[in-house]
């Protein structure tokens, strides 16, 4: 019971981003996108969602993009390949909640100002790539 209550609080804490992900994924389904629940997250892929993810930086190489408990991807197979990495981001959203977006962007700006790569050297990505390359 305590575990369910804790998980419910974490889902609620990350929910502002999950709602954004649901809106993007829902729109993607209007253009042929697919949806499934897998390993504690809702995954949207193909169709309009695939198109959206392909147009995120760094473009065609982006396999997945996490917003709260929603993971957006180009393809279902691609989401399986990056699933472990994206679930580290889900845990980060559970930890940071509404602060995740600003914290991620500030971390990217900080490392960029110090001459590092704003994506690969971002501490959120470093943690995700360390635990799930
Ligand atoms: Zn990542």
Give the SSE map.
Blueprint: H1 2-30, E1 34-38, E2 41-45, H2 47-54, E3 64-67, E4 70-73, H3 76-81, H4 83-96, H5 100-113, H6 123-131
Parallel strand pairs: 2-4
Antiparallel strand pairs: 1-2, 3-4
Helix pairs in contact: 1-2, 1-4, 4-6
- Contiguous helical run count: 6
Structural class category: alpha+beta
Calculate Rg over CA atoms.
15 Å
Distance from N terminus to C terminus (CA atoms, Å) equals 33 Å
Count of domains: 1
Strand content: 5-15%
Largest sheet: 4 strands, mixed
- Secondary-structure element series: HEEHEEHHHH
**Helix content bin:** 55-70%
Q: What is the spatial order of strands in the main beta sheet?
A: 1-2-4-3
Shape: globular
Distinct small-molecule ligands in the complex: zinc ion
Low-pLDDT segments: none
Count the strands? 4
Instruction: Report the mean per-residue pLDDT as an integer.
Output: 95
Could you explain how this protein is built, in words?
This protein is of the alpha+beta class. It has one domain. Helices cover 60% and strands 14% of the residues. A four-stranded mixed beta sheet has the order 1-2-4-3, with helices on both faces. Strand 3 and strand 4 form a beta hairpin. 30% of the residues are buried. The mean pLDDT is 95. The structure holds zinc ion (ZN).
Task: Write a short abstract of this structure.
The chain has helices at residues 2-30, 47-54, 76-81, 83-96, 100-113, 123-131; strands spanning 34-38, 41-45, 64-67, 70-73. The protein has 133 residues and is of the alpha+beta class.
Which key terms come to mind for this protein?
four-stranded mixed beta sheet, alpha+beta, 133 residues, 4 strands, binds zinc ion
């Amino acid at each position: 019971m305590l575990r369910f209550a804790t998980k419910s609080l974490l889902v609620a804490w990350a929910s502002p981003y999950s709602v954004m992900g649901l809106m993007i994924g829902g729109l993607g389904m209007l253009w042929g996108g697919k949806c499934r629940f897998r390993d504690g997250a809702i995954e949207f892929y193909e169709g309009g969602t695939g198109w959206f993810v392909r147009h995120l930086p760094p473009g065609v190489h982006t396999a997945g993009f996490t917003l709260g408990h929603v993971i957006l991807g180009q393809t279902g197979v691609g989401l399986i390949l990056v699933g472990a990495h994206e679930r580290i981001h889900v845990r980060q959203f559970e930890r940071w909640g509404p602060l995740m977006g600003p914290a991620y962007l500030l971390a990217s700006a900080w490392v960029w100002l110090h001459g590092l790569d704003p994506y690969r050297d971002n501490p959120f990505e470093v943690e995700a790539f360390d635990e799930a390359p």
